[in-house]
Amino acid sequence: MKKYIYKILKSLDKLESNIAFYPSIISLFGLVFAFFMIYLESIGISKYLVENAPILVVNNTETARSLLTTFIAGLISIMVFSFSLVMILLNQASSNFSPRVLPGLISNRRHQIILGIYNSTLLYCIFTLVSITPQGDKYQMPGFSVLLGIIFMTFSLGAFIYFIHSISQEIQVNTIMDKIFKKSKARLEKLVEAEKHTDTRFEDTSDWKPIMSDRTGYMQDVSLKAMAELAEDHNLIIEIVPIKGAYILEGIPVLRYKGDVNDANDDIEDDKELEEELLATITFSNNEIIEDNYILAFKQITEIALKAMSPGINDPGTCINAIDYLTELFALRMRKKDQSFYFNEDDKALIHINTVSYEELLYNVMAALRTYSKHDIIVVQKLFIMFKYLLQQNNVLNENYKEAIIKEVINLKKDALNNHNNERDIELIKSYITKLKNVNPSDHNFEV
């Protein structure tokens, strides 16, 4: 039973994240409201308003037909123009920044709501136009509905103006990076806050019973609460083998567990059914979402920086801005431990979650930046400033993180000296190494 509940909840989450979800809901509202107004017109609301508040009724048939026809044609034109702008935005973002940023731009909820406003107004105007009686009797004509159509069209024009403003902001690289940064920061802060500050370790899990993946895709998210409930019900301890966001192939182990399944107290009767329940708590997807995986933010911001340093674009300023965002994210990541566990209410570790270590994350980012930016002394200078800031975070700087930073400083120093022959540039590089040594001279050794 739990397995089907998990699947339903996952299906609802996927449905809400679909680009057509909010436009469809708003459009349905417009359609239902159109039929509701037709019903009100059939019981004489326009006739009542003509007698008591004539200013609220459009009682000329030709005027009403002309207005509604114009609204319908205009809304279709606005929708086509808006769609064209979105395509231009996506094409430019893919070409100038990174294809990875496209899901975030497509799923912009404000743009989905605006599309829903357009479509709901269009449907309302169409059905209101159809409801106008051919006799031309002013009491039978939906005069009040036509007035509401004018109001809805005014809202649509306001939404169109806002859309133009929003789309002009969305295409700016600083706006894109800022959104990526804020989503990742929120996710990291949530993980840090939920982390238990106790030293916990699992035994060697290589001989635990594995559960193989029954599908292929990115491991987008795991319902830890549901998995923990199963673990408690069956006296299990569980390890999540892949790192969240990894691409999973069918038939490779995604979970390992240890415990006595025969102690079950619910409807699960054998290992196979238990494994299906556990697999149901894992969400697979063809897309990667920052809200579920903060590592993706490091990838996206790094790719934007690399794209900016390509010969075709040659925009070191954007690369420097990207390093500023990466600096703050790395400083925040230092507050999180490399080992992650999920605890029950009794502070017992039930689930071990494999994560990307700080050293691996820092190396992957720096390996790409060093490869494409080592020739630019301004970018190299900014990277040294980033390392200096990270080494100054003494309140969260443990030995493993410190060693990882020192390794990358040495790598950057080596690549920078090998790619710069100008004496002034070499002097600048050495001066930053001296500054880094002075941060904590007894602990740091930056000799290549």
UniProtKB/TrEMBL annotation:
Domain of life according to the entry: Bacteria
Any one Pfam family match given in the protein's UniProt record, by short name: DUF2254
Keyword Nucleotide-binding applies: no
Keyword Transmembrane among record annotations: yes
Keyword annotations of the record: Membrane, Transmembrane, Transmembrane helix
Transmembrane segments annotated in the record for this chain: 20-40, 67-90, 111-132, 144-164
InterPro entries cross-referenced by the UniProt entry: DUF2254_membrane
Protein name: DUF2254 domain-containing protein
